[in-house]
Design a protein that fits this description.
Layout lengths: L1 E7 L14 E4 L4 E4 L8 E6 L4 H4 L13 E11 L4 E8 L9 E3 L3 E5 L6 E8 L4 E12 L9 E2 L11 E6 L16 E5 L6 H8 L7 E5 L3 H14 L2 E4 L12 E4 L8 H6 L14 H4 L6
Parallel strand pairs: 12-13, 12-14, 14-15, 15-16
Antiparallel strand pairs: 1-10, 2-3, 3-10, 4-9, 5-8, 5-10, 6-7, 6-9, 11-13
InterPro entries: Acessory_Sec_prot_Asp3
Protein name: Accessory Sec system protein Asp3
Organism: Staphylococcus rostri
């Protein structure tokens, strides 16, 4: 079974697009590239997970992948002569150092996203091609079974014994970006959960509720709801991006954080480029790390 599919198209010209002597036509269904004099080994185009908009003037086109997960890359294109382009998948660490690349010469390949990777990019490289009709790349997460996974509760991450709070992040299916938790101490991640798991999760987290304050943190509609339910059950504090739809209760303290965004057309176009967990960067780190609101 396959799910969580992302469709990648060639929809823009960037500084990495080979334009010298090139005829290029981009429309909604395919991009046509023609250059009979382009040297072999040169990059035709690059798709990136991360870009610097101010210097590159382009938005990211690749989705954020989850570390340790295997994804199926399916390429839809025609090239003349047949087989005369290939793709190179490059993973980069946080410091920018490139890891061993994956060379892709077939139209379907399964790739595991390395746990130490911070970002990645995909290069289309010429191998004596004269023209390319590129339609799409599909990135899909393969699943071995239809049985729902069992929830997991991590050990304490970014541990700081001087902080008297435990910050429990309810993680959604898309995971977290690498910098989402920056500055947050004593973090516990709850992943692959279902609403029916509330009692079991509370039992797992209960030993942490002896001397430390418990914060349950959500950042999407579903994780907000789960954080609120757990906080209510354990008499703890819920941190949510909106309290809309949450029932009133005296059993939990609810703090609302982040930015409420009006779904304008501009936002609808840009929001797929950002990861939902970006909201966590708006948390009051001082308060969550045991401080007091002034």
């Amino acid at each position: 079974m396959l799910h969580n599919s992302h469709t990648i198209r060639w929809s823009q010209i960037t500084s990495d697009t080979f334009m010298y002597g090139t005829h290029l036509h981009i429309d909604a269904h395919e991009t046509y590239f023609e250059n009979k004099l382009m040297p072999s080994g040169r990059i035709i185009h690059v798709w990136k997970m991360m870009t610097d908009y101010y210097s590159e003037k382009t938005l990211p086109q690749l989705p954020i992948l989850k570390h340790g997960y295997t994804y199926r890359f399916t390429f839809d294109y025609d090239v003349e002569p047949e087989g005369h382009i290939y793709f190179k998948l490059i993973f980069k660490k946080r410091n920018g150092v490139e890891m061993a690349p994956v060379i892709i010469q077939s139209k379907v390949i399964d790739v595991t996203y390395p746990t130490e990777a911070f970002s990645y990019e995909l290069q289309m490289i010429n191998a004596a091609a004269t023209s390319v009709r590129f339609r799409s790349i599909h990135i899909t997460e393969p699943v071995e079974t239809d049985v729902a996974p069992t929830f997991t509760v991590s050990s304490i991450m970014y541990e700081n014994p001087d902080v008297s709070a435990i910050n429990v992040i309810i993680v959604d299916d898309t995971g977290l970006t690498r910098d989402a938790l920056q500055g947050l101490h004593n973090v516990v991640l709850v992943e692959q959960w279902q609403v029916a798991d509330i009692a079991a999760i509370a039992e797992c987290v209960a030993p942490l509720d002896r001397d430390d304050k418990l914060n349950f943190i959500g950042y999407t509609v579903d994780t907000n709801d789960m954080a609120y339910r757990l906080a209510t059950q354990m008499g703890a504090t819920a941190w949510v991006t909106t309290a809309e739809g949450l029932p009133a209760t005296d059993d939990a303290v609810v703090n609302v954080y982040g930015q409420t965004v009006t779904p304008t057309m501009a936002y609808a176009l840009v929001t797929p480029m950002f990861h939902a967990s970006r909201q966590l960067r708006a948390l009051d780190m001082g308060l969550l790390n045991g401080g007091r609101r002034v």
